[in-house]
Amino acid sequence: MNWAEMIVKALKDWDTSLIAYVPDISIHRVTSLIEADPYFRLVAATREEEAIGIAVGSYAAGRNAAVFMQSSGFGNSVNALASLCIPSRTPIPMFVNLRGGPGEFNIAQVAMGQAVRPIMDQLGLVHFTLDDDRNMEKLLDGAMKLCHANRQPLAVCMTQLLHGGKLA
């Protein structure tokens, strides 16, 4: 099972059927699997804070949701996380394509890519970083369990070392 299939399995195992995302080529392998599976409802958003709002609304209506985004757009979601998701104790797992690391070709991605985890720390958001697929199934299951038990958003940051990144 590859990394994308492991994420899909973890989402299903935790009854997370609504996926809000901002389209990105680096996560296309996982979102294309989600889109092809009738279990899921994949909702494209134009901005990351919109994806957070969709996920919170889904959870409020009784359906578990997750969000996929790129690190450069994570900054767009901070207000929605801090003023909606965190105070309402909404367990939203976020899968963040972390740009700006080894293999990055676009210098504009580096600053936000480096700032994502410190911002998460300031917000008190638990986050894990995946560089490869070793122990990935255990990590994803544990992260989903923590997210739902704690009733707080949680981030799984996926580096270019995991998914191969974008080409110039």
Structural key phrases:
168 residues, alpha/beta, Rossmann fold, six-stranded parallel beta sheet, 6 strands, 20% strand
Report on the architecture of this protein:
This protein is α/β, with parallel strands linked by helices and 168 residues long. The protein has one domain (3-163): 3-Layer(aba) Sandwich (Rossmann fold), CATH 3.40.50.970. It is 48% helix and 20% strand. The chain has 7 helices and 6 strands. It has helices spanning 3-13, 28-36, 48-60, 71-85, 110-123, 136-150, 160-163, and strands spanning 16-21, 41-44, 64-70, 93-98, 126-130, 154-159. Strands 2-1-3-4-6-5 form a 6-stranded parallel beta sheet, sandwiched between helices. Helix 1 crosses helix 2, helix 1 packs parallel to helix 6 (136-150) and helix 4 (71-85) runs parallel beside helix 5 (110-123). The longest helix is centred in the middle third of the chain and has 15 residues, at 71-85. 40% of the residues are buried. The mean pLDDT is 90.
Structure described in brief:
The chain has helices at 3-13, 28-36, 48-60, 71-85, 110-123, 136-150, 160-163, and strands spanning 16-21, 41-44, 64-70, 93-98, 126-130, 154-159. The chain has a six-stranded parallel beta sheet, with helices on both faces.
